[in-house]
């Protein structure tokens, strides 16, 4: 029956089994098969490989034979037993220390990228997921937005730009609390489009939306830039780069308001902030920071008069001036 199915069916099976081929490659790299065979003085049989690697005899033999079939290993028979050695492909690309080694890339692909690809369908369906994330973020500002925005008097700043402002929920809380002010919400195009379709901030005439990449594109000129739950997504180096860009765009006499959950000075509390920091570790390249760590980012970017205020709520405020 298979033979009647023709080329289409063969192609389909090849695609469907592609992940198994990748996993054989990743597993052999992870276990150190290619290193072991590179360092051995002669080809090794599967019992020797499994004993060196501490792996199961049966699983190891199967893996080695599959690697032979994939041309990653070659097998010869000596004394009635199969012995294995690296092929040229493996010696060139899979062994640590080879000048053309791709081993680290394969380990990354196997450990990290492969796990993310498990969620490809959800990612493609992501408008729903993004919308849900934005709704989740908005929920907090409905309850805590006014408190955090009242930590400092923002009335001297008539034009506010909320960078990475998402749905516009915080901008909306801002124009309600400070009736004299207008706000620009700056975010990536996909987020701005969802905000315009689904969130009420876009109907408020005091709020406008601006699409862009805050690491690359020109930032709108404003008196005050808000960065709420943005810096915690990024490494110190990327935060510094962003803060320098904000400093350059900011009007003289203007300021920056960083809204984040502040860690205690010794970095050992509050528990909620520590948990958020672990959440950042799992999901992003960032972390939560202490007041001193925010000062150390803001000062070198050019900002002065850095003041930190704990609100008693989930999020705190750091205001600095240009
Ligand atoms: C954790 S969310 C915080 C959203 C909002 N400030 C809040 O507190 O609810 C981070 C925001 O930064 C935006 N963002 C990430 N990278 C960006 C970039 N390169 N340029 C502009 N916005 C970006 C995301 O789209 C997202 O809306």
TrEMBL record:
Record's subunit section: Homodimer.
Protein name: Acetylserotonin O-methyltransferase
Residue ranges occupied by any O-methyltransferase C-terminal domain in the UniProt entry: 123-304
Residues annotated as the enzyme's active site: 232
PANTHER family from the UniProt entry: O-METHYLTRANSFERASE CICE (PTHR43712:SF2), PUTATIVE (AFU_ORTHOLOGUE AFUA_4G14580)-RELATED (PTHR43712)
Biological source species: Bos taurus (Bovine)
EC number: 2.1.1.4
Principal EC category: transferase
Keywords carried by this UniProt record: Lipid metabolism, Melatonin biosynthesis, Methyltransferase, S-adenosyl-L-methionine, Transferase
A biological process from GO: lipid metabolic process
Gene: ASMT
GO molecular function term, any single one: acetylserotonin O-methyltransferase activity
Biological role: Catalyzes the transfer of a methyl group onto N-acetylserotonin, producing melatonin (N-acetyl-5-methoxytryptamine).
Family matches, as InterPro entries: COMT-like, COMT_C, COMT_dimerisation, SAM-dependent_MTases_sf, WH-like_DNA-bd_sf, WH_DNA-bd_sf
Pathway(s) this gene product operates in, as recorded in its UniProt entry: Aromatic compound metabolism; melatonin biosynthesis; melatonin from serotonin: step 1/2
Domain O-methyltransferase dimerisation: from-to ranges: 14-95
UniProt cross-references to Pfam families, sorted A to Z: Dimerisation (PF08100), Methyltransf_2 (PF00891)
PROSITE patterns: SAM_OMT_II (PS51683)
């Amino acid at each position: 029956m298979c033979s009647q199915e023709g080329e289409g069916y063969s192609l389909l099976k090849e695609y469907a089994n592609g992940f198994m081929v990748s996993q054989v490659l990743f597993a052999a790299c992870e276990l150190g098969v290619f290193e072991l065979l590179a360092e051995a003085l002669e080809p090794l049989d599967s019992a020797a490989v499994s004993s060196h690697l501490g792996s199961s005899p049966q699983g190891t033999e199967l893996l080695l034979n599959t690697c032979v079939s994939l041309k990653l290993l070659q097998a010869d028979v000596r004394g009635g037993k199969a012995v294995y050695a690296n092929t040229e492909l493996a010696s060139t690309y899979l062994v640590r220390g080879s000048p053309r080694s791709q081993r680290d890339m394969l380990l990354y692909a196997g450990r990290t990228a492969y796990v993310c690809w498990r969620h490809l369908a959800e990612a493609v369906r992501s408008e729903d997921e993004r919308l849900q994330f934005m709704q989740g973020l908005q929920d907090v500002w409905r309850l805590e937005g006014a408190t955090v925005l009242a930590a400092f008097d923002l009335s001297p700043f008539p034009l506010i730009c909320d960078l990475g402002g998402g749905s516009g929920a915080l901008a909306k809380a801002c124009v309600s609390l400070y009736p004299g002010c207008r706000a620009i919400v700056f975010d990536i195009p996909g987020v701005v489009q969802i905000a315009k379709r689904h969130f009420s901030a876009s109907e408020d005439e005091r709020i406008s939306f601006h699409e862009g990449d805050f690491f690359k594109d020109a930032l709108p000129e404003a008196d005050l830039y808000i960065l709420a739950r943005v810096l915690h997504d990024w490494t110190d180096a990327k935060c510094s780069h962003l803060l320098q860009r904000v400093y350059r765009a900011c009007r003289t006499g203007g300021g920056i308001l960083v809204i984040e959950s502040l860690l205690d000075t010794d970095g050992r509390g509050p528990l909620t902030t520590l948990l958020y920091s672990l959440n950042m570790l799992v999901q992003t390249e960032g972390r939560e920071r202490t007041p001193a760590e925010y000062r150390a980012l803001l000062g070198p970017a050019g900002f002065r008069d850095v003041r930190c205020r704990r609100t008693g709520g989930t999020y705190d405020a750091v205001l600095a001036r240009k």
